[in-house]
């Protein structure tokens, strides 16, 4: 049965109800039609994970090229509902990078304009457009959702949204693309997930594996004549404002070779966020004043990260500044696909999630992940 979509500002999708302050999707077991429709992905992650997906209500903030990719992947995967929030209007520039809007949408709200095209991807997903500014939303607003994803925002609003999500205990993602570059940040607060593997002769110990990850349980099952071990792990996260000021892990700054491998993109993102605070603007221009300020901030951030000065080259600074704020389809496709897949894994509580900063530099075709947290406790503590 197709969901009634095109809901705007305050209307709840017609196949959902309000329960305990949350949008609640119908809790029926997955139907035979849905099993046939989602057969390919059910073979990958199972019926239980698909049932969790179909009951998930996701908030997507911002509707530029990156958000287009995220929405596409999540809707095709069969989530329960998607709320798209954006208070900006479609411009002619959007037509070159977004595939949910066209010329006749220019001047209309981005979220409302995209709904009808998103709907064609999967009519089973309930859609909701919100045209208000995200900063007017109280923390209780986020309690309506199972996952919040904010795209292409400055650090200040990201920090506010992240804090509100933590207040109501909801997982949060942030992401942005800047031409050839981009990032994904995850704050899942505390997240448990299960890794399945063939049982080893060496017993699994319930203990800390890293400063953020702990093995908390281990069970076995028989499958096709093999003993399969199901290991439950728990990850702890930090909010974006703390991650932004946290050092690299000791094993990274303690090795010269590893320090050389840390991309200067991390430095430039931190410099960009400091620029937003100092200059009061989202993006630097090509003016001499802005270039001087950004270069100074990048140099300071590089030193704070204890990275070699030779890895912050003027060529990279120039390239980053030329790309900042722009959108390139292959980059947004990669980032959108990665983020959507991580959301699917988190909802299904399977596989290792992003912990906690993924950086993407298309020049190198690499997407390293760095765990940025303010405190690094010892790893040899047992599980009590």
Characterize the structure shown.
The protein is of the alpha/beta class and 384 residues long. The protein is built from twelve helices and 14 strands. A nine-stranded mixed β-sheet has the order 1-6-5-4-7-8-9-13-14, sandwiched between helices. Strand 11 (213-223) and strand 12 form a beta hairpin. Helix 3 runs parallel beside helix 12 (329-348) and helix 9 (264-279) packs across helix 10 (288-304). The radius of gyration is 22 Å and the shape is globular.
* Rg: 22 Å
Structural class: alpha/beta
| Mean pLDDT figure | 88
Give the termini distance in whole angstroms. 48 Å
Say how many strands there are. 14
What low-confidence regions span 5 or more consecutive residues with pLDDT below 50?
1-5, 10-27
Helical region count? 12
Strand order of the largest sheet: 1-6-5-4-7-8-9-13-14
Task: Tell me the β content.
Answer: 15-25%
Coarse morphology: globular
Write the H/E string, N to C. Answer: EEEHHEHEHEEHEEEEEHHHHHHHEE
Largest sheet, described in full?
9 strands, mixed
Helix proportion of residues, in percent? Answer: 25-40%
Give a topology summary.
Elements: E1 7-8, E2 16-19, E3 22-25, H1 32-37, H2 39-54, E4 57-61, H3 65-77, E5 81-85, H4 110-121, E6 126-130, E7 147-151, H5 155-167, E8 172-178, E9 181-187, E10 190-198, E11 213-223, E12 226-236, H6 240-243, H7 250-253, H8 256-261, H9 264-279, H10 288-304, H11 314-323, H12 329-348, E13 357-361, E14 369-370
Parallel strand pairs: 1-6, 4-5, 4-7, 5-6, 7-8
Antiparallel strand pairs: 2-3, 8-9, 9-13, 10-12, 11-12, 13-14
Helix pairs in contact: 2-12, 3-12, 9-10
């Amino acid at each position: 049965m197709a969901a009634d979509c095109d809901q705007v500002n305050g209307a709840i999708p017609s196949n959902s109800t309000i329960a305990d302050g949350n949008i609640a999707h119908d809790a029926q077991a997955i139907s035979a039609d849905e099993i046939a429709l989602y057969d390919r992905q059910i073979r990958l992650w199972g019926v239980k994970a698909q049932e969790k997906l179909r009951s998930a209500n996701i908030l997507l903030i911002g509707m530029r090229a990156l958000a287009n990719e995220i929405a596409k992947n999540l809707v095709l995967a069969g989530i329960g509902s998607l709320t798209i929030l954006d208070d900006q209007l479609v411009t002619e520039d959007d037509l070159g990078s977004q595939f949910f809007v066209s010329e006749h949408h220019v001047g209309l709200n981005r979220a409302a304009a995209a709904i009808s095209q998103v709907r064609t991807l999967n009519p089973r997903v309930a859609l909701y457009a919100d045209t208000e500014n995200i900063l007017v939303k109280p923390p209780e607003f986020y309690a309506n959702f199972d996952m919040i994803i904010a795209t292409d925002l400055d650090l200040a609003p990201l920090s506010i949204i992240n804090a509100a999500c933590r207040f109501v205990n909801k997982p949060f993602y942030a992401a942005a693309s800047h031409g050839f570059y981009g990032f994904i940040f995850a704050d899942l607060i505390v997240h448990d997930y299960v890794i399945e593997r063939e049982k080893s002769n060496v017993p699994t110990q319930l203990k800390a594996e890293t400063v953020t990850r702990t093995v908390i349980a281990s069970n076995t099952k028989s499958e096709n004549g093999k003993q399969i071990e199901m290991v439950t792990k728990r990850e702890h996260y930090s909010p974006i404002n703390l991650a932004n000021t946290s050092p690299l892990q000791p094993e990274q700054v303690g090795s010269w070779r590893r320090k050389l491998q840390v991309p200067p993109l991390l430095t430039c993102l931190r410099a960009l966020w400091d620029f937003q605070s100092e200059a009061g603007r989202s993006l630097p221009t090509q003016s001499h004043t802005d270039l001087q300020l950004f270069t100074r901030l990048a140099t300071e951030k590089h030193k704070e990260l204890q990275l070699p000065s030779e890895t912050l080259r003027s060529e990279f600074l120039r390239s980053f500044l030329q790309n900042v704020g722009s959108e390139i389809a292959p980059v947004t496709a990669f980032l959108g696909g990665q983020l959507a897949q991580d959301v699917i894994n988190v909802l299904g509580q399977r596989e290792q999630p992003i912990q906690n900063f993924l950086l993407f530099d298309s020049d190198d075709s690499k997407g390293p992940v760095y765990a940025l947290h303010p405190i690094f406790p010892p790893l040899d503590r047992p599980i009590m």
